[in-house]
Amino acid sequence: MNRQAQAVVLLLLGGSVLKASFTDMYLRYVKEGLRPFLIASGVLLVVVAVMTLLHDLRPRRGAAAAGPAHEDDDHGHDHGGKGHHEPRVGWLLIAPVLGLLLVAPPALGSFAAGQAGTALSSQRADSYPPLPDGDPAKISVLDYASRAIFDGGASLAGRTVQLTGFVAEGPGGEPILARMILACCAADGRPIKLGMSGNAPVGLPADTWIEVVGGYTDRVMTDPVNGEDIPYLQVESWRQVDPPKQQYG
User: Which residues cross the membrane (predicted)?
Assistant: First the structure.
């Protein structure tokens, strides 16, 4: 790979990062707050690529008077006749470019949730504010699970809540409600899991997004992956919904 080819690859990579950053595609890879950094990285890659191309393609002084030996030097050959090649590993940069341009992988879902233990213990808080106004109160799967386990359901008592997540398979094969959370990017995604009792959905395929309404129950089960507690929600009603723009929560 010569310098011009390297610049073209950088240009494509930077353009791909910018394309993902200016659409919702980037939300499948990183947290929403990292968008400015992605845009800055994409712009930097494009600028470096353009400057490299301009520098390499501009006319050079004395080029017209140079003989064949000089031309050989320009193409990466030394005076001994031995060829000099740039590392071929540079072509591996094409892989993420093609991934961003041609493939739109889905966000992490039920398969990833089944392979990892619930991450609830790492999200413990010392205190919990009152639930939002409204009936039902719209909260996240993480918020409900934290209050149910670490607050003993005290801040949930007497309230109806509304949660949104995707269906996954629980330890005993029963459906559970899950939502993936990120520390930074999809590579460190971990699930928050909820059991569903009462009027729980039955027969839905994995990765189906649903909105459930229900209340607190002290029932818990153990996650077989890491031994952590998984709280339950007493479901009163549910409905299928489209996947949200931000699937990590």
Answer: 36-54, 89-108
Task: Determine, yes or no, domain membership for 218.
Answer: yes
The letter for the amino acid at 182 is L
80 and 58 co-located in one domain: yes
Query: pTM higher than 0.85, yes or no?
Result: no
Q: Are residues 115 and 144 in the same domain?
A: yes
For 102-134, what is each residue's pLDDT tens digit? 666 788 999 999 999 999 988 887 788 999 998
Amino acid at 248: Y
Q: Residue 247 falls within a domain, yes or no?
A: no
Residue range of the domain that includes 62 = 3-102
**Phi then psi dihedrals of residue 5, to 5 deg:** -65, -40
pLDDT number for residue 18: 86
In a domain, 246, yes or no: no
Residue 67 has pLDDT above 60, yes or no: no
Contacts of 116 (CB under 8 A, 6+ apart): 189, 190, 191, 225, 226
Paired residues of 220 in beta bridges: 231
What's the CA gap between 210 and 241, in Å, rounded? Answer: 5
DSSP calls for 158-209: T--EEEEEEEEE-TTS-EEEEEEE-SSBGGG-EEEEEEEEES---SPPTT-E
Task: Assess whether 124 and 29 both reside in one domain.
Answer: no
